[in-house]
Amino acid sequence: MKKKEHKVIPGEALPFDPEAAKRVDDPLAIDAVAYVEIFAANAKQTAYFYTRAFGFRPLAYRGPETGYRNAATYVLEQNDITLVISGPLTLSHWMAPYVMIHGDTVKDVAFRVPDVEAFYAETMMRGARSAESPTIWRDESGFVKRAAIYTYGETVHSAVERGEYKGCYWPGFVPYEDYFESIPSQTEPGLMNVDHVVGNVEEGQMEHWVKFYEDVLGFKEMIHFTDEDISTEYSALMSKVMTNGTSKIKLPINEPAEAKRKSQIEEYLEFHQGPGVQHIALRTDNIIHTVKDLRRRGVNFLRVPKAYYDEVPARVGSIKEDLAAIAGLGILADRDDDGYLLQIFTKPVHDRPTLFFEIIQREGSQGFGAGNFKALFEALEREQDLRGNL
Ligand code: FE2
Fold first, then answer.
1. Model pLDDT for residues 5-47, shown as the tens digit of each residue
2. Domain membership of residue 195 as a residue range
3. Residue pair 216/270 in contact by the 8 Å Cβ criterion
4. 339 C-alpha to center of ligand 1: Å?
């Protein structure tokens, strides 16, 4: 292959303008989750896993072939979900110690915002800790702006403004097919968008982070689950769901509560070496199709005992899906005043018992499956016990 000419496009820092927050109606407006970025020791194989196991389509690439000597990044898409997978190529890159400490992990839950500088100025004024000051990347196809603030642990929220960028993903990226064989056509699992992203924090720290989302990002507490709501014979946890003004962004936060044995949150904190993203919930319109497809692709899901389904008709009432199909696939059901939901959880997707995924179909319910917590946490504990961590 002929060597292509590439220009490394460095980001240019924008001057900090504390007045920027005043130039828009709502500087904290968030349109959607722009992307979720996962740091992985081996980005190439991790990207392949999400492509083959979860049906994502590789869109863009940046790495040594495009002039970036120390790191590789793959951008994957499925409907409104963008997954960014990055990995270090040399020990001198700061991502190398990062993945050594935390394992493969979510680094960034990025928000799409109308005005990055306004968002950054407002969050700084409200006490955020800066992870990246407003920066612009430009090429002949337009520009992308980004700034980032820290949340729990070393996780960040980037704010991204795309300025009608017409190139491939981001200045400095090239189409995936420029360097790799295009992947053969595959079935569509039908994952539509990020429904919610859950973080685990240390015992006693949940309130601190609830206040952070309220004070810095203007979020509100949507639901609160106590350790009585979420406990098994052995372990307990507490959870609060934070949501932004439009309710488009839902970010629950868990902390472990005192109990007889080690909770799944403590296991996470131990293996992740601190707080971080526990699970990413992806929404589907047809969970039976999605789970069938993902199982065929080799995704491993948690199983609840068959007896769980004996109580579903009485607890959840009538649902349009075939209960036998739901039970056969191990999908969980729950109902609240607004309707019902169907959900299922994968086993951890990397080596450490840290990050996993949830697949969710909402039929009116805006809840999180509180009626399933007990069955679910017992299933999680069986896995924890197999790993010798209960
Ligand atoms: Fe969830």
1. 778 899 999 999 999 999 999 999 999 999 999 999 999 999 9
2. 191-387
3. no
4. 17
